Amino acid sequence: SSYGGFGGQDFGGFDFSQFTQGGNGGNFEFDLGDIFGEFFGGNMGRRQRVKKGRDISVDLEISFAESVFGVEKEFSLTRNSTYKSEKIKVKIPTDINDGETIRMSGAGEPIKDGVAGDLYINISVRRDPLFKKEGKNILTEINIKLSDALLGTKYPLKTVDGDIELIVPEGINNSEMLRVKEKGVPIDSRHRGDFLVKVKIKMPSHLSKSARKTIEELKKEGI
């Protein structure tokens, strides 16, 4: 092998000593990338960009309970490229929140000689009149009578799991929280958050004579 003046290698008699990059003291400027590109096929440092189809965005409404436990939903989708309506199934995970988005890779618009775009599903959780989430807990509120607050009671309570009987202890205070364990949002396959119940004491707007007399007697006892 013969070696020349450029890194010790002879490129077929081509003398690199006559050229300098940047034009400082040389005859003209040149680009090493262009020269090596000519030698090695012209694709040095270049990557072919893969074409991607258009992304699609749709809105999907789910119930509060579905947002807590997750659900598999089916909806119709018409792509512009096919103009055909087809059924799409999507698995909604547990503990998804209003405004979150699920991406289904490759489920968007197809494109010739490329990859299909993605499908973005924007989740809207329907407002529930009874429940709301706070972290992994679910909150609700009940109204009880003053007599039930003083004496205690059993209250029929609706939860996301169905109806249960809530024990309200005697002497409970207004706005006090009662906790039903493991009836909240799933944390994993074995654990859940809690179901929190805010107790509001409904004060009577009108007292009968006998009720007033009873209250006056209680007042004398310091209650």
From TrEMBL:
Write out the entry's keywords from A to Z. Answer: Metal-binding, Repeat, Zinc, Zinc-finger
Q: Name one GO cellular component term.
A: cytoplasm
Which Pfam families did the record assign? DnaJ_C
Which biological process, per GO, is one annotated for this protein?
A: protein refolding
The source's superkingdom equals Bacteria
Which molecular-function annotations from GO does this UniProt entry contain? Answer: unfolded protein binding; zinc ion binding
InterPro entries linked to this entry: DnaJ_C (IPR002939), HSP40/DnaJ_pept-bd (IPR008971)
**TM spans (from-to):** none
Q: Where is the Chaperone DnaJ C-terminal domain?
A: 56-204
| Alphabetized SUPFAM superfamilies for the sequence | HSP40/DnaJ peptide-binding domain (SSF49493)
Its name, as the record gives it, is: Chaperone DnaJ C-terminal domain-containing protein
The taxonomic lineage of its organism, from the top, reads:
Bacteria, Candidatus Tayloriibacteriota
